[in-house]
Design brief:
Blueprint: H1 7-56, H2 60-81, H3 89-114, H4 119-148, H5 156-186, H6 193-209, H7 223-242
Helix pairs in contact: 2-3, 2-7, 3-4, 4-5, 5-6, 6-7
Length: 253
């Protein structure tokens, strides 16, 4: 009598082995799906927290801009209480070093915020305010030097250079600040009240710088009220930098 295994028995064995492997495959698949669900459950809240921090947190540039604006306000206040002695050490330090440096840092920090909305226009405004600030420093150096050398009688060349520098400052600094004010005022993510304050400063600055063309404008704006308003704007920028940009992704950390 033959003891060989029939074809039916072999077929049944293969069928059982296939079904058993299929069941094991389903178990493995269900375990993988469950582990993925747990991982997503853990990563979801973490991603949400990180996204929330990106949206509401302030960057290191904002902190630097806030400190620079506060120092600029103190510099303007010191300049108001200093005696009007030309070319004195404290006056030169504030007028030619402290105030321009803090202004440039503040303009740079504002540019970092404004570039989110309009990169090209904010870059143009940044270049204008930087050029205007540098030419204003050159004009202040020339005026302080002329006041120090008051015994000299020939001021023709110095006057021509001073007029040229004031013209360049008039065509750069107010227009750059106007671009900043417009970008802040139209952006829904930024605090618009600072744009209004800078807009008033632009008008006062333009009137003050245009007085060499229209002398009668000196009756409306003098240097002391302009410095007082500059202190107000600097303090406003200090608070503005501390407020995060709501609803805007901060990709430049």
């Amino acid at each position: 009598m033959s003891s060989g295994v029939g074809p039916a028995t072999v077929s049944v064995g293969f069928l059982r082995l296939f079904l058993q492997n299929l069941a094991n495959l389903e178990v493995v698949r269900s375990n993988v799906t469950a582990s993925q669900g747990k991982t997503e459950g853990l990563e979801g809240p973490l991603d949400e927290v990180e996204r929330s921090n990106d949206l509401s947190g302030r960057s290191w540039a904002d902190v630097i801009g806030s400190v620079a604006s506060l120092v600029d306000a103190l510099a303007c206040l010191i300049f108001l209480v200093l005696p009007a002695t030309p070319a004195s050490g404290a006056r030169l330090c504030v007028l030619l070093l402290l105030d321009p440096i803090t202004c440039v840092i503040g303009y740079w920090a504002m540019y970092r915020r404004l570039m989110i909305e309009r990169p090209k226009l904010s870059e143009l405004g940044f270049y204008l305010v930087i050029c205007g600030t540098l030419f204003l420093v050159c004009q202040n150096v020339l005026e302080e030097s002329a006041a120090l050398n008051s015994s000299s009688r020939d001021y023709s060349n110095a006057t021509e250079i001073d007029i040229l520098l004031e013209l360049v400052v008039t065509l750069t600094l107010p227009f750059g600040l106007a671009i900043y004010a417009w970008l802040i005022g139209r952006s829904p993510a930024l605090r618009r009240w600072l744009g209004f304050l800078i807009g008033i400063q632009v008008v006062l600055l333009f009137i003050s710088l245009s007085s060499f063309i229209f002398p009668w404008l000196n009756d409306f704006v003098t240097s002391q009220p302009l410095n007082v308003y500059a202190i107000i704007v600097s303090l406003a920028k200090t608070a503005w930098f501390l407020w995060p940009v709501a609803g805007t992704k901060r990709a430049y950390r």
